[in-house]
Amino acid sequence: MWSLLRKSKHSHAATDIWRWEVSGLHAHQSDRMLREPFALAISHTYKRRRVHELAKKIPSPPGASSVFGALKYSLLGKDSVSDRDDVEYILKNCLEKENVMRFFREIIGNAGIFAPVSTWIHRRKMLIPAFSPKIIKSFVSKQARQGLELSEQLEIDGRVGSGEFSIWPYINAYTLSSIAETALGVKLDALRDPNIPFLRAVQDVLCFIASRIVKVWLWSEFIYKFSNLHADVQTSKTSLYSLPDKIIKEKREALYNNNKMKNLREKQTIYGQGQDSNSFLDHLIMLSEEENRLTDEELREEILVMMLAGTDSSAVAIGYTLVLLAKYPVIQEKLYNDIKNHFGNSDRPLNSDDLMALEYLSRVVKESLRLFPPVPGITRKAGDKEVHLPSGIILPRETGIVVSIWGMNRDPKQWGPTADCFDPDRFSDKQTATYASFSLGPRNCIGYKYALQSVQIAVASIIRRYKVVGEPEKGSVPTIDSTFSIMMRAKDDFKIALEKRHN
Ligand code: HEM
């Protein structure tokens, strides 16, 4: 079991660096502890006396002694002292992920986001060209079509002009379909059929992983193996793997048996006739062919990671942006007028030039992601040596670290006295503050350009047609009751009302 004992001396919103331990135990060690409690506890405490010594020098806030209380403090914590240098140092130098990632690995395998550094370096190198600006740009037309389908489906389902509803299932279906089409190259119509087995499985595994993280007794492999959750995970894994495995097999066959690699290089579509760009999978097969060939299993792992990392996170970002626009009608009108002036009376689909031109849209999305980062905190782990932070704090070796993105993004030392206010115009000037929503350093979010594009397209598609209505916020500091599982999310699943715009 883990708990957070100490908070960094120089901690503040930006550097909520916590030590994750109970008597210095790490997760895998706690399993053994269950079996051999006393002998191990004594030997372990002795071995980790340096850890305890350093921990004592890191002050704790009141209430940080329980697992959940402390986790909440660490992710959403805010107090006075600022030290972004510490955060930047950690994110650049501590690239290993915390042991909690093993829960993801059990299902997804050793793909980039969860992998140990030794595997991650090679995979990240392979992924970088697949996320080039040119490739991301080539997805705009697909995403714009899906944005249009999203706005149409809301009307078909009678959601427009009929009071408050949760927009979550719609935006989640949009991001799922969008990532399925761009990552795998298949059109899965989640908006009309949310029960496609693969899409269900993606949602299920996210819930199962979140569930195992909070049920600390299931951290023991022994107890977990006999739990219902384990059985559910095995069933979902089969559904989760079947579609990517089938597509990978078909693409490989198309590429090698029919000798179509040349065609792929010339940007023609092998799978899914009539598409105007290749999927991430196409690019990965091609890129991995040029260097070290990824096995089918490795390809599946990377594709699944994109789907898991890119679905809920982008949907959460769309949800918060819409709720904020409902709370701030003046900002919404400014955005609407900007979009209207740009498109005039045309209802043509949005393209990449439009995205470049709609500058206020990009500011609104960025500001929403700053105040409500879908991933409010990230975990890292100190290596086998102590980490000496610029502020003078020494983190014991192998310490689990939680960095609060929420705190970084709301740090008054960086963002000034209006740090908590919703003000998209703060991005009209060049910002010197550290924007952490997609993390920093070599292990940051590789999909951030894709994500911004996808969120902007969804928001523009809705705002072009509808007015988002909700209770206006009384002040400039928005409050949205939120909960945290793997992502942060509004407790009411993003309830809004929509009214049709009449030009
Ligand atoms: C608004 C949406 C998104 C947010 C807020 C977000 C945020 C993040 C964050 C905070 C990390 C962790 C970085 C770290 O540990 O330092 C991450 C990693 C990652 N994200 Fe995203 N992400 C989003 C969308 C996406 C999308 C759409 C994709 C793929 C198409 C994606 C792919 C990844 C991958 C592959 C990693 C692992 C990077 C690595 O370890 O090398 N993300 N993301």
UniProtKB/TrEMBL annotation:
- Keyword annotations: Endoplasmic reticulum, Heme, Iron, Membrane, Metal-binding, Microsome, Monooxygenase, Oxidoreductase
Q: What is its main location?
A: endoplasmic reticulum
PROSITE patterns given for it? Answer: CYTOCHROME_P450
Cofactor needs? heme
Membrane topology classification: Peripheral membrane protein
Fetch the InterPro entries from UniProt.
Answer: Cyt_P450 (IPR001128), Cyt_P450_CS (IPR017972), Cyt_P450_E_grp-I (IPR002401), Cyt_P450_sf (IPR036396), Cytochrome_P450_Monoox (IPR050196)
Give GO cellular component annotations, separated by semicolons: endoplasmic reticulum membrane
Q: In which compartments does the protein localize?
A: Endoplasmic reticulum membrane; Microsome membrane
Q: Name one GO molecular function term.
A: monooxygenase activity
Task: List residues binding heme.
Answer: 445
Report the SUPFAM superfamilies cross-referenced here: Cytochrome P450
Family, similarity comment: Belongs to the cytochrome P450 family.
Which purpose does this protein serve, as stated in its record? May be involved in the metabolism of insect hormones and in the breakdown of synthetic insecticides.
Entries under PANTHER family matching the protein: CYTOCHROME P450 4C3-RELATED, CYTOCHROME P450 FAMILY 4
Listed name of the protein: Cytochrome P450
